[in-house]
Amino acid sequence: MYTKDHWDNVYATKDFNSVSWYAPHLDKSLQLIEEICPDRAAAIVDIGAGESTLVDDLLLRGYGDLSVLDISATAIEFTKRRVDQLGDKSAHVNWHVGDITQYKFGPKQFDLWHDRAVFHFLTDPAARAAYVNTVRRSVKPGGHVLIATFGPDGPLQCSGLDVVRYDQKKLQQVLGDGFELLGSEITSHLTPMGSNQQFLYCWFRVGR
Asked: Does pLDDT of 40 surpass 90?
């Protein structure tokens, strides 16, 4: 069910600010990115970015080597049009459309991998393994991985799809060896519909 057609339909038929994961700004992600990776020259990739404003906010904070990936071309085109309004800053963004369980970034490697609300959609163990292999290929030794999933008391479904809920121990086990857990935090996301969703943020250092 984690398919391009599903997500293209979601982004084509729903207003950007009406989906359950919408937030005007990803404040917790921004805070952690600046703490984990303060170097504005660092290469950062946002996985499953959708139509979020994270890329805009990182550009406005001076980050100059950003990559954005989503499975939905509809979402990427929407976000790209918005970012283009930032003028010359938009030249600092590389845009990617593809399924992260199959995608290859080529020789590009990142200092920071950010994923808010993609990993928990991977209910198939083989898809999770493929995702982790992509992380291993794509993040520099000593780089960081920041993942936000639904927490232990989070929803069982999102966007009509089943999800997997995580605590920090379970997420560490799924990622496996070579990912040093540096910290974790449980947060609450208020959806546009007025309900609260529990999120788990975990950040890791990739082994050398």
From this structure: yes
